[in-house]
Amino acid sequence: MTTERSALTPVAPQQRVEVLDIIRGVALFAILFANMAMFRLEYFSPIIEALGLSGLVEPISSLDRAAYWVVNMFISGRFLPILAMLFGWGCYMIMERAEQKGLSYKSLLWRRLLLLFGFGVLHYVFIWHGDILMTFAVNGAFLLLFLRMSTASLRKWIVGWIIGFLVIGSVIGIGIGFGLQHITAMEPANVTNFIEEMDASLTQVYREGSYWEVVRSRALIPLVMPFVLPFTVPFMLIFFLAGLYAAKAKVIDRLIRGEGPLSRALLPSFICAMLGMGISTWMIRVSDNWLVFGVAGILGTIGWIANVLFYILALIRLSKSDLFGRFLRPFIPVGRMPLTTYLTQSVVATSIFYGYGLGLAGQVGAAEGILLTVVIFAGQMIFSRLWFKSFTLGPAEWLWRRLMYGRGVRLRYAPITKV
After folding, report:
1. Kind and range of the H or E run holding 266
2. pLDDT tens-digit readout, 151-185
3. Residue 301 lies in a domain
4. How many CA atoms lie within 13 A of 213 on its CB side?
5. What percent of the chain is helix, strand and coil (3-state, nearest 5)?
6. HEC string of 102-154?
7. Does residue 259 sit within a domain?
């Protein structure tokens, strides 16, 4: 008799939506860009540059300043929401496939999320402290409450969440305003000393410690994560809900066909993103009034959400183009193994920068970090393409699905039977 776990198997390669794999692959590339400063053990410089406080600390090169500006303005915080949307979309597709076979989707999804959380704990303790897998698992657990909800109700929740985002953005903006007033009143030397002391306290063990000293420094952190992770839900769940809504309402299908109002939102979303982020950045740099910072927080939030939408619409549009589609197709294999790609990025980057590896932290600037990002990801693109010549799933994806579905998850392609 077929068990529930073996009755369902991962989606076959020929059944995958290539556009979504392209979007996922590009998002993983961008996330490596955004994470590179943390891998390089440089936490404060991107924030200092984003807030226009570079005059208070030691000057950096114009090339590094340009690199910080590009990453802060166009990459950081824009692509993790896209992965969250794709995760929400995937949860609905699992539910739909389970129901088509008359099976319970809840136990399957709970296994999926618990396994993902377990991967996150292992990743955090043994590889890198910037883990997002635990956050995705917790948000996915909240998403289960919305899976049966109608599209009309989901729209109301998403609109309400956006309004809440604007309020949060305003509060954050006001908080930044008061913080900047305090910082700019300090002597530049004191600011520099403060940043250097904070940097040393956060990164010393990573710069100088052995592998097991680094592991021990993180070993107890997952015990407090259940108390910390719920605070991340308000910032991420909206994108999980948006992905769920997109799956239920067949938004992706209509966008691929060029149908629906969102298919005409490419230019408006770009204009809204540039105006929101540009005006917000300008207001922060030219004013020290807390009320102005509150308005800047609202405009920045609007620009951020519009920027996320623009990237999704642009990638779908470009993937349909003969010219740009050919350029984007190499992202498909990477997008088919997102967990493997994400984990190997952490392994490679920490081996380059941490003391137990090559120990290059502090020796690679922001501009060089961009070049290194391209090199690492190019290697991942080559590896993933070669891997899928023989295998159906990435190695981490196979393990995840093997534990999730049970037997019947094939790693190698089925042999061709000659007739």
Report:
1. helix 266-286
2. 999 999 999 988 887 887 788 777 766 666 666 66
3. no
4. 11
5. 75, 0, 25
6. CCCHHHHHHHHHHHHHHHHHHHHHHCCCCCCHHHHHHHHHHHHHHCCCCHHHH
7. no
